[in-house]
Amino acid sequence: TDGARQVVRELFGIYQSTPAEMPPAQAAQAQDGDAQHRARTVADFIAGMTDRFALREHERLTGQRLLG
After folding, report:
1. What is the DSSP string of 18-67?
2. How far is Cα 11 from Cα 6, in angstroms, rounded to an integer?
3. How far is the C-alpha of 41 from the C-alpha of 39, rounded, in Å?
4. For residues 66 and 36, what is the distance between their CA atoms, to the nearest angstrom?
5. Of 12, 15, 43, 63, which has the fewest CB atoms closer than 10 Å, so is most exposed?
6. 10: CB partners within 8 A, 6+ apart
7. Contact predicate 12/43, CB 8 Å
8. Could you tell me the pTM of the whole model?
9. What pLDDT does residue 65 have?
10. d(Cα 65, Cα 44) in Å, to the nearest integer?
11. What is the pLDDT of residue 68?
């Protein structure tokens, strides 16, 4: 589960700093508000991901294959 935690932590950091990596609707929502609103939008987006999608996104964004 350490790998899964790393995936979530790194996805959160990437989406926080670069919301444009999320789909357009979520990116726009993340950019429309304060830091707390952005964090909540990013967290909600990640929470809605399947494990498989999260792993693919992590690999796409970091170039690292941690699990699977």
Report:
1. -GGGS-HHHHHHHHSS-HHHHHHHHHHHHHTS-HHHHHHHHHHHHS----
2. 8
3. 5
4. 29
5. 63
6. 58, 61, 62
7. yes
8. 0.91
9. 87
10. 23
11. 60
Q: What is the pLDDT of residue 52?
A: 94
How much is the pLDDT for 25? 95
Cα 41 to Cα 30: distance, rounded to the nearest angstrom: 6
User: Is the distance from CB of 61 to CB of 21 less than 8 angstroms?
Assistant: yes
Of 21, 16, 22, 23, the C-alpha closest to 38 is 16
* 17, pLDDT greater than 70: yes
Nearest to 19 by CA among 34, 30, 8: 30
Cβ count within 10 A of residue 23? 10
